[in-house]
Write a structure and sequence with these properties.
It contains seven helices and no strands. It is mainly α. Helix 2 packs antiparallel against helix 3, helix 2 runs antiparallel to helix 6 and helix 5 packs antiparallel against helix 6.
């Protein structure tokens, strides 16, 4: 009696991703929740969202919270796609040349881009709006954690493109 060995796709579907990838999925999922909630609040009420007064924007290049809200919605959407790519191992034809050049699948590129964008946004925000003792350190730490989890050796091995 012969038994068929599982295909590569079946074996890949049955294994759980390494710990850093799981942590990255959880961290990005929390970012999705916060970014979409904050972004929607800012777009729907750009003058006084979530109790943030327009005075916080005095040093910023914007007069209301609409564009920061749009940025957060975009960050949330990119995070949802990246989480889905990490969990379901989506393959996009348009991403193949980029993946081949970098050596990693597109969710790795997405996680790195999200971490870098959030870090840059938060550092700029730190200098333009009053310091928030919880949100600024939390989001700067979160962006650094996303970057560190993305460059972890087991994450990179998990998301390497196949030769």
């Amino acid at each position: 009696m012969t038994t068929a060995s599982p295909t590569k796709e079946t074996r890949r579907a049955l294994r759980w991703p390494p710990g850093p990838v799981t942590a990255l999925v959880l961290l990005l999922s929390f970012l999705v929740i916060g970014a979409l909630q904050g972004g929607l609040a800012m777009v729907m009420n750009p003058i006084d969202p979530l109790g943030m007064s327009p005075e916080f924007l005095e040093g910023a290049p914007v007069d209301d919270y609409f564009w920061p809200g749009m940025f957060l919605l975009g960050l949330g959407a990119a995070s949802i796609l990246t989480v889905a790519g990490l969990l379901f191992e989506w393959r996009w034809e348009w991403a193949h040349p980029i993946e081949a050049a970098i050596g990693y699948r597109w969710p790795w590129i997405g996680a790195m881009a999200i971490g870098l964008l959030l870090l840059i946004f938060e550092i700029i925000e730190l200098f333009m709006v009053p310091f928030h003792p919880v949100m600024h350190p939390l989001l700067i730490g979160g962006s650094l954690a996303i970057l560190l989890l993305a460059v972890a050796p087991s994450t990179r091995r998990h998301l390497q493109t196949e030769p």
